[in-house]
């Protein structure tokens, strides 16, 4: 996608001074990381810590609301309860590794249901592709966990150390008792948030109230403590210290999404045809009165200081941009104070920019082959998964034929094959199944230690049975397909196929 190009101003008249190029200001932003040789001869400048300015506006409010919802869901869901039956866990969302079960409210998944997990991953990828085709990295700017926790850590930092100007002064100030107290308080709260973040994740793998009590009394299992410490360290480092570096260098999505977007995808862009050339607010009226070009951008750098990635959106679309919209709020606030129209920076498309440059009307193609394809795939995969969940069986059956020997010839000439049947009862109550064998004429069925008409399986468990199938002499052909079918007299039924060896 082409980057925004600055327009060169026409030569002004002698009566009105022309807007002059300004030297780049040092705002502690990522502009100092550009791939331009610096004074010491190295290719890249050292990273400068980014201290974003707090802004107010529509997109900032949206981010606050989504942050509250996302954190509320993450921290509170493990404590939701629900009754599943006697002996069943009451936690609404639980990944029970000991029992090999995943509980999601009324849905219970077994290890054999791993296809549903694969389906969810495919569905998530398709939804991400659709979001990217409509509005670029909107996921990164509003819903990505890295963005959510970075916003939370920044809010704590502002609450303790002040906004951008105060934090820059504190960074430059020598160490003192006040600075040590502020920094210690900030990092202590960061560690507390990171600890509870890691703890909340572990609560999805065990009964939440029980584990919280064990943690409070220092009786938690070692594996839980190790997981919490690992996740605490990761959250503290990623959200507190690495921040935009995770999005720029560690996350592969900025590089992948470039291949999935097109000129009709909405991204945050600077309207250079309106903003250039940049001049101060005081000179704008003089230049325009003299018939000279003067853009609406006053080069105040409000968009740069508000950006959590520290980029200058006026230089065009960049890989570092997470499309969070904070630069829009910052610029709109400046335009409101100057009495100028808002929207100098906003969500726009490359096709729209070209259309305006050609003097044509706006172009908007949210519905196009790319988005239709993704939408159809999302609906198809989601619909198939819902149908599969609604119609899935709570009874499972698998059959394993004896390998050695594959068959035994009895004294009367009859042929016997041995099988191992594994029956899965996915319901919270014990059930008894009746077994029938089809495909072998005249065969009789024997269950070692039991009866074919009553195979008991405990609740929410699997049970193995040793089954012998005996066929009369002279069976033809030498190999026959055989079907094992089980029923419980209600709605439980399952079947499995194998082969019967006669010789």
Automatic annotation (TrEMBL):
<feature type="transmembrane region" description="Helical">
    <location>
        <begin position="114"/>
        <end position="135"/>
    </location>
</feature>
<feature type="domain" description="4Fe-4S ferredoxin-type">
    <location>
        <begin position="287"/>
        <end position="316"/>
    </location>
</feature>
<dbReference type="Pfam" id="PF12801">
    <property type="entry name" value="Fer4_5"/>
</dbReference>
<keyword id="KW-0408">Iron</keyword>
<dbReference type="Pfam" id="PF11614">
    <property type="entry name" value="FixG_C"/>
</dbReference>
<dbReference type="InterPro" id="IPR013783">
    <property type="entry name" value="Ig-like_fold"/>
</dbReference>
<feature type="transmembrane region" description="Helical">
    <location>
        <begin position="372"/>
        <end position="390"/>
    </location>
</feature>
<feature type="transmembrane region" description="Helical">
    <location>
        <begin position="188"/>
        <end position="206"/>
    </location>
</feature>
<keyword id="KW-0411">Iron-sulfur</keyword>
<keyword id="KW-0472">Membrane</keyword>
<keyword id="KW-0479">Metal-binding</keyword>
<keyword id="KW-0249">Electron transport</keyword>
<dbReference type="InterPro" id="IPR051684">
    <property type="entry name" value="Electron_Trans/Redox"/>
</dbReference>
<dbReference type="InterPro" id="IPR017900">
    <property type="entry name" value="4Fe4S_Fe_S_CS"/>
</dbReference>
<feature type="transmembrane region" description="Helical">
    <location>
        <begin position="218"/>
        <end position="239"/>
    </location>
</feature>
<feature type="transmembrane region" description="Helical">
    <location>
        <begin position="62"/>
        <end position="80"/>
    </location>
</feature>
<dbReference type="Pfam" id="PF13746">
    <property type="entry name" value="Fer4_18"/>
</dbReference>
<dbReference type="InterPro" id="IPR017896">
    <property type="entry name" value="4Fe4S_Fe-S-bd"/>
</dbReference>
<keyword id="KW-1133">Transmembrane helix</keyword>
<keyword id="KW-0812">Transmembrane</keyword>
<keyword id="KW-0813">Transport</keyword>
<dbReference type="InterPro" id="IPR014116">
    <property type="entry name" value="Cyt_c_oxidase_cbb3_FixG"/>
</dbReference>
<protein>
    <submittedName>
        <fullName>Cytochrome c oxidase accessory protein FixG</fullName>
    </submittedName>
</protein>
<dbReference type="InterPro" id="IPR032879">
    <property type="entry name" value="FixG_C"/>
</dbReference>
<keyword id="KW-0004">4Fe-4S</keyword>
């Amino acid at each position: 996608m082409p980057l925004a190009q600055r327009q060169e101003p026409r030569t002004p008249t002698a009566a009105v001074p022309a807007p002059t190029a300004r030297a780049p200001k040092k705002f502690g932003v990522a502009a100092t990381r550009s791939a331009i040789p610096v004074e010491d001869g190295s290719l890249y400048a050292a990273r400068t810590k980014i201290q974003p300015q707090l802004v107010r506006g529509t997109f900032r409010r949206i981010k606050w609301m989504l942050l509250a919802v996302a954190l509320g869901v993450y921290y509170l869901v493990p404590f939701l309860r629900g009754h599943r039956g006697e002996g069943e866990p009451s936690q609404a969302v639980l990944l029970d590794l000991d029992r090999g079960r995943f509980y999601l409210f009324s849905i219970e998944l077994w290890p054999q249901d791993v296809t549903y997990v694969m389906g969810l991953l495919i569905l998530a990828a398709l939804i991400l592709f659709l979001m990217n085709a409509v509005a670029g990295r909107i996921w990164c700017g509003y819903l990505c966990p890295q963005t959510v926790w970075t916003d939370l850590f920044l809010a704590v930092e502002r609450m303790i150390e002040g906004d951008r100007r105060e934090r820059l002064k504190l960074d430059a100030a020598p160490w003192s008792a006040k600075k040590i107290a502020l920094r210690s308080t900030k990092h202590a709260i960061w560690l507390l948030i990171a600890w509870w973040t890691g703890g909340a994740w572990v609560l999805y793998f065990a009964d939440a109230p029980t584990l919280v009590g064990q943690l409070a009394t220092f009786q938690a299992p070692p594996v839980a403590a190790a997981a919490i410490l690992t996740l605490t360290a990761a959250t503290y480092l990623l959200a507190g210290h690495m921040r935009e570096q995770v999005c720029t260098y560690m996350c592969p999505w900025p590089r992948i999404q470039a291949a999935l977007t097109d000129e009709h995808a909405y991204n945050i862009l600077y309207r250079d045809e309106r903003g250039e050339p940049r001049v101060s607010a005081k000179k704008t009226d003089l230049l325009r009165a003299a018939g000279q070009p003067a853009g609406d951008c006053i080069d105040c750098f409000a968009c740069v200081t508000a950006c959590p990635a520290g980029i200058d959106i006026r230089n065009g679309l960049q890989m570092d941009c997470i499309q969070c919209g904070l630069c829009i709020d910052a610029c709109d606030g400046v335009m409101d104070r100057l009495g100028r129209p808002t929207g100098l920076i906003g969500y726009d498309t490359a096709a729209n920019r070209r259309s305006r440059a050609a003097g044509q009307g706006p172009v908007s193609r949210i519905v196009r082959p790319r988005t239709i394809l993704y939408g159809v795939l999302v609906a198809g995969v989601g619909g198939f998964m819902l149908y599969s969940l609604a119609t899935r069986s709570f009874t499972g059956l698998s059959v394993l034929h004896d390998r050695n020997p594959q068959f035994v010839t009895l004294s009367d000439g009859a042929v016997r094959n041995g099988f191992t049947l594994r029956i899965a009862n996915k319901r919270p109550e014990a059930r008894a199944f009746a077994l029938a064998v089809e495909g072998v004429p005249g065969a009789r069925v024997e269950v070692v230690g039991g009866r074919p008409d009553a195979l008991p399986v405990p609740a929410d468990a699997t049970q193995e049975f040793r089954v012998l199938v005996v066929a009369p002499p002279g069976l033809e052909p030498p190999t026959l397909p055989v079907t094992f079918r089980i029923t419980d007299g209600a709605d439980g039924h399952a079947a499995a196929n194998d082969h019967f060896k006669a010789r």
